[in-house]
Input
Amino acid sequence: TAGPTYEAIDPVRGITNISSGKMGYALAAACAAAGAEVVLVSGPTRLTCPAGVTRVDVASARQMQTAVEEALPGADVFIGVAAVADYRPAEVAADKIKKTGNDELVLRLVPNPDILAGVAARADRPLCVGFAAESRNLAEYATKKLHGKKLDMVVGNLVQDGMGGDHNTVVIFDHAGQHPLPRAAKERVAQGIVNHVVRLLNQSSNA
Ligand code: CTP
Output
């Protein structure tokens, strides 16, 4: 998965975030270059689909979950890079919401499904890779995601180092420990992540 999600409030407004999709698209391209058959489930971005990758366009987290479930059978690896909205409006207004003078407008939000945790909880789960974009305490929060969502690997970065830009500084967290990658263009970082995924796949097939 890649990019942001978009949760409609009414026909012309919605909740989204500043994810550009660049890291997820770079990873899809790196996986394809490594010989994988790749389905890229993408939220709204301005990016073009990498060569050799099948893109499925979605907007909301629930659409993203459905598209992931359709693409999953037979997959060896699931990599969740999308910045999925944790909450969506409880109701989507059928008509454009009109302002009501100076009164407060209260939006009620309900939790979205966790797509990655859902994939990792399946009996026939593929190798599961998550991303953790944090503004502080990276190691603590990334390790919490690794164990909490029962993942094989988490790619952690500080939002101020990567979100929206062309470069990223990441640390890979897996059950053997922490593996920092050098700061580089997202394409280069993606290759490093794919190399680590391949090492874990080889370990699990040798086990
Ligand atoms: N993810 C997902 N579905 C969600 C939320 C997140 O698949 N509904 C995936 C993301 O693609 C990413 C990882 O989970 O791989 C991020 O974890 P998450 O706990 O959502 O991060 P934050 O939203 O930053 O959560 P927190 O508020 O706990 O830091």
Remarks:
- The two ends are 28 Å apart (CA to CA).
- The longest helix spans residues 186-206.
- Residues 1, 61, 80-82, 84, 86, 112, 114-116, 130-132, 141, 145 surround cytidine-5'-triphosphate (CB under 6 Å).
